[in-house]
Here is the input.
Amino acid sequence: MSRGKKILIGIGVLIVLAIMTAVALRGGSDDAVEVRTEAVSRRDLVARVSATGYIEPKRLVDISADVSGRVVQLNVEEGEEVTEGDLLLVIDPARFEASVQRAEAGLAEASARESQARGGYLQAQRDWERIRDLKARLPEMVTETEFETARTNAEVQEALWESGKHAVDMARAGVREANDNLAKTVIRAPMSGRVTRLNVEKGETAIVGTMNNPGSLLITVADLSVMEAVIEVDETDVPEISIGDSVSISVDAFPNREFVGRVSKIGNSSIRPRSQQVSSSDQAIDFEVRVTLEDSDVELRPDLSASADVITDVRPDALSIPIIALTLMDPSEFERLPNEIEGEPEIEGEDATESTGSGDPIEGVFVVDGELARFRPVDVGIAGDNYFEVLDGLEEGDTVVSGTYQVIRDLSDGDPVSSTSKDSTQVTEE
Here is the structure.
């Protein structure tokens, strides 16, 4: 027999022996499912809502031009501190000065016409009064036509005078508008703070600002003394958050620092309205939450990326179980097995239908009872990072199946188990 055949035969023998050994070991364990277990214990639980966002000053003003024109004077640079009322920039005023002169000339002309109309009205009114008095004293001296003509002329001249007064009012409004536009060529700081954005240079043309035209933004002045974290929270988490909740914030630019703050504002509508979404089923509905940061020795800049953990609830010394231990079971599977195991007679009729009928899944855990896993319904409260608060259904010291996920998913009430314990001496959440 060649050496190669001997090697192949030897490998085959080893494989057979390995298979026989595995079968023997399996048979000796009584088909017990190997599980991880953990004792129900008490620990401090903290419920959090995590979200991401960015840093922004609590107060900032985006400055746009109210009139169009070339920038002829620029007095600030980005990063410079300014005081309320400081001159920031000047737009070429030549065109607006000409508009003021034209409006003033129009006012003078309208005033002259109003004065002329007033003189005509006064003259017509005196003529009408003379004719009226003469007709009253000597009716035969004034014909009816003369009488009506004088009265009509007085009414017409009065109307012309009223028209002249309105023309003067319009001309004055034109002067005010022209002066207002001229004043808008000078842009001053609306608040004290820092110039955090400068989008214009001397010689460029400023265009009238609109909400839908970001290119019209000239300067941003921000008060950096109070900063906020603006985060986007999923719609399912918004009901858990309240004004005043404590928040832990991490900023990507400062990886070794933790900032703290409190929720100061919760959006009343979603950031992106459903009407603007292509498909509401494909996009998450998020709400804006603003967190005011407490004073820090670190100077934060606008638009820095941030992550936030909103502390929504705290349960000190709470009875708890691992989150992974909680599972769901069909009511028919859970309610039928205890009667069979304890030897109780089978229920017939309507009561049997109620006991084994279908319904909403029952929430609970598998408790290790000797060498068997028993399903036990539980009521849970807040969820920490790794543990659920237990409100009812378990007692301190009970041993529950805590892993693995696939084992818990496949486990049934009454299955034999062999366990490996996890140290649960800690009192704070992992």
Observations:
- Helices lie at 3-28, 94-137, 144-183, 331-341, 350-356, 405-410.
